[in-house]
Amino acid sequence: MKHQNFILIISGPSGSGKTTICKKLLELDKNLFYSVSITTRKKRDNEVNGIDYIFINKEEFLEMIRKDELLEWAEIYGKFYGTPKKPIFENLNNGKDIIMDIDVQGKRKIERNFRGRVISVFLIPPSKEALIERLRKRGDLSEEELFQRISLIDIEMNFKWEYDYWVLNDNLERAVMDVKKIVDVERLRGKFILI
Description:
There is one protein chain. It is built from 7 helices and 11 strands. The strands form 3 sheets. It has a 5-stranded parallel beta sheet, sandwiched between helices. A hairpin with a 2-residue loop joins strand 6 and strand 7. The chain has a single domain, classed as P-loop containing nucleotide triphosphate hydrolases (Rossmann fold). It is an alpha/beta fold and 195 residues long. Helices cover 43% and strands 23% of the residues.
């Protein structure tokens, strides 16, 4: 017997450590598949196409919407982001649990499509000031982008009430292990299916 595969969604304000925690979890757990989002934003210097994001232009993105190839999508900070369907279904069918770092809009859409199979984690930064400092240190945001993200912190934090779990990310290693424990517990308490 094995558990019914699930989708683990990790959300939080910009700069809360979503992508970093997802990557660390993949190193610890080979039964997780990381859903790489598609975006129309420009690639940052330290990012790898196909690993961090799949970078495409707006016309390609709109074509994917027309062809119904995305599970969810949204326009954020003037750029499009979305989750491709095909790898999600392939990996669920191959016995993997899925991990995604998406915003609350995307979470709501995924929950509608996968009722009872979504586990959600909201990352809590140690403080608003610490989060702003993280965003500034990244050095990859224009002043306008930085202002946009800072202005949304309080709004984004209010969404934490919609999530199954909260994880404080004041220490990266501890936060990673807290999320790993959530994965382990959910596998134990999940609905079991006969193999």
